[in-house]
Amino acid sequence: MPGHDLIVIGASAGGIEALSELVKDLPAELPAAVFVAVHIPAHSKSTLPKILGRRSVLPALKPEDGEEIRPGRIYVAPPDRHLLIKRGFIHVVHGPRENGSRPAIDPLFRTAARAYGRRVIGVVLSGSLDDGTAGLIAIKKRGGLSIVQDPDEALYPGMPQSAIDNSEVDYILPVSEIGSTLARLAVQPVEEGGEAPMDDEMEMEADIAELDMATLHSREKPGRPSRFSCPQCQGVLREIDDDDIIRFRCRVGHAYSPEALLAEQSDSVESALWAGLRALEENGALMARMAKAMRDKGNKRSAARFDEQGDNALARAETLRRMILGRERMTAAETETRQEASAD
């Protein structure tokens, strides 16, 4: 009878330190495969397998698409790819971003839950926002176990706290105890079968992450149309209710939690404001150039008109610049307040 032999771990900001501490306590004879998804920039060269390999007695590697799952290994999601689980092998795909990230944590957790049910343990470590919460819900629905880093010790408590607030967490532990707990749970027998079936929406979301063409081209999409548009492709977002957790997914597969969507919208607003400022300053500069050309020709009336229009554009640009700087100060203050509240 197998044990909890498939461990999936998600982390973001502050997560590499936590991961390094966790893996050093995993034994060489661990009868489980470990999968790790950490938010990393798309075009970076990830050294995470080397970092974890130096801390752990288990080999840490970047898997290839289609690679067989083998126990006693740590598989690390490569940059700009989702790490997904199929029964017996690994799927590495350039699928749509979830919560603004690729690799993302929820697709790893969701596909692991679908493939291995009760045998899965999901672990959420330090990170901002709430990636991993929906994935833990999927794992729990399928009878698996969940472990969350104690938010009080996490460098960024957002992800652990969201998981605790919105899912039934089995263990809330300091990182120093997670590795040994995983080793103990991995050898506990798990009776397979009898898991709750995956609901249709969860099946579709897993298929979308895996780039299943039939699902991507199907008229059936998870959720219902919302009033919001996707920040990445501007398509209509569909709203998904998942155990009272609201999520959003667009037609092509980009997915967001409410916090992630708010963050993406905030970035879009900032980009639009800076673009508006640039356009106004360019307009003012062009008007000044045209005014000079009119003066050089002795056309004082046209020069005065262009001067006035240019001054108006630059005045609006200065108003917009003050608005942007005020918005940035307000955002910084709100972030500091949230961090202080989390620390308390």
Please explain how this structure is put together.
This protein is α/β, with parallel strands linked by helices. The protein folds into two domains: 6-186, Rossmann fold; 259-343. Helix content is 46%, strand content 18%. The protein is built from ten helices and 13 strands. It has helices at residues 15-23, 48-55, 105-116, 133-141, 158-166, 175-186, 200-209, 213-217, 258-296, 300-343, and strands at residues 6-11, 33-38, 60-61, 74-76, 82-86, 89-93, 120-124, 145-149, 171-173, 224-229, 236-242, 245-250, 255-256. The strands form three sheets. It has a seven-stranded parallel beta sheet, with helices on both faces. The chain has a four-stranded antiparallel beta sheet with strand order 10-11-12-13. Strands 5-6 form a two-stranded antiparallel sheet. Strand 8, helix 5 (158-166) and strand 9 form a beta-alpha-beta unit. The longest helix is centred in the last third of the chain and has 44 residues, at 300-343. Mean pLDDT is 88; it is low at 337-344.
CATH topology of the largest domain: Rossmann fold
Helix content: 40-55%
Helical segment tally? 10
Class by alpha and beta content: alpha/beta
CATH superfamily of the largest domain: Methylesterase CheB, C-terminal domain
Largest sheet: 7 strands, parallel
Q: Between the first and last Cα atoms, what is the distance in angstroms?
A: 44 Å
Count of individual beta strands: 13
Instruction: Please identify the top-level CATH class of the largest domain.
Output: Alpha Beta
Helix-strand sequence:
EHEHEEEEHEHEHEHHHEEEEHH
Global shape: elongated
Poorly predicted sequence stretches spanning 5 or more consecutive residues = 337-344
**How many discrete domains?**
2
The overall pLDDT average reads 88
CATH architecture annotation of the largest domain: 3-Layer(aba) Sandwich
Tell me the Rg in angstroms.
25 Å
- Across the major sheet, the strand order is 3-4-2-1-7-8-9
Strand content: 15-25%
